[in-house]
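An instance noted here:
***
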Amino acid sequence: MPQLFIGLALYGFSIAVLVRASLGLSPWSVLNEGLEKHTFLSFGTLTGVVGVVVLLLWIPLRQRPTFGTGANIVVLACSSDLGLRLIPQHLGLLARIGLLAGGILLNGLSVAVYVGARFGPGPRDGLMTGATAATGRSLRLVRTLIEITMLAVGWLLGGSVGVGTVLYALAVGPTAQFFMPWFAYRSTAERMGDPALS
């Protein structure tokens, strides 16, 4: 369980790093930032609110939340707001480029840490897998459509889209995949090489 909370806390902090880089955000963060400009709520609070709204979309998809789902909502909201308070704004371009690179690296690492803990999907991942099962479409297509929709809505609301958005889309998956073998939880039987699990 500590691995889950560490991973989620790092993920929330990495989102804050990317926000402070001001070079473009991931699609869901673009949405959250866009919403922030039209409400009195903080970025982290909106991350949680959006997570709860997405969770409601699980109902017709017959998805069931787990402990990890709830932890995802709470920890991301708190850790992203904390990161935004700790990281200064209006930095120079070189510092922002460093934040972008470091944020993407930390984001990929944190995904590997919390997914590897195997406590269940977060709201957004559950929406993706549930929609895939309900429509019979490929996971890749469903995820792409969801991400494009969130990006478009967030951009229309004033969220930051830029080179960082493209770099995030290209790099976070390979980064998470690189780190995943280091953090993937294995049961005792898996560690002992049970042939039935091969």
